[in-house]
Task: structure prediction
Amino acid sequence: MRSFRTVGLVAVVSIALGSLRGDNSEQVSVKLPFDAHQAKGGRGGNTTIKYHGGPVLLGTVPIFVIYYGAVPSGTQTIIDDFFTHLGGTPQFDVNQTYYDSQMRHVLGALSFSSRVNVYLDNYSQGVGATLGSSSIPNIIQAAIAAPKGLPADPTGVYFVITSPDQKVSGFCTSFCAYHTRTTINGTDIKYALVPDPGQACTGCDGNVAVFKEDTTPNDDRGADEVTDSAFHELSEAVTDPDLNAWYTSNGSENGDLCNYNYGTTAVYIAPNGSHANAHIGSRDYLIQTMWENASPGFCANTYP
Result:
């Protein structure tokens, strides 16, 4: 859900943005925790998603991942595998139903290489410092400026994934993840913040919040929650990268309309006994469905 940092907004959005420290003058689109999402009535309001004239991300979209702090290596492997194999899956292909003013559609293609597109940040904003909204562009800027760092690419999406020990203002209470854009060295940078909750945050995890279970498909609650939230934010970033393309009259994007909706027929039991609904690469994941841009639209986990 999008909003501005201004007074007088819908209550839950004001709380979410008010809890983010720093001055981020751009719009922010947040994935709400399960209880807050339910309090809004699930999808909430009008589900008619409309085009507002802005760009979408076309062609093969590069994915850049910044692991901030001590993100466990096993967690990184699960997340890397997810991004590496997500492009071209039936789940991500739902985003192909979105297009720009010239009727050019989002593609089901992503570009990810753990050797090229991953950057490890050893607490560049200070060990023990609480991260706020103004911290995240600084982290991305540091990754771009570093020797052998990341390129500044306006066609890609940058993910900042913080370690479980890193405090992030508002995380788990007001938001699970968010995406927005900023300008770094004259380049329009699209990015998302997806904190790794470890075992600490149950309200952002579908296995725990929806299916009431203690296990997740990869036996790593942090990694499995990150992949679900990352899919939410990536789908919104490619269909509404500058927050002026596809959303409903109340500001909901395609991920918001299906938040915590995992479908029915696709859900199965993973080898460890937890619920899953997507086999991507060699792993099982539980990732939300995405709003298919049709008349009428609906939550889908496969396209066409």
Q: What stands out?
A: Residues 158 and 191 are 4 Å apart (CA to CA). Confidence is low (pLDDT under 50) at residues 3-25.
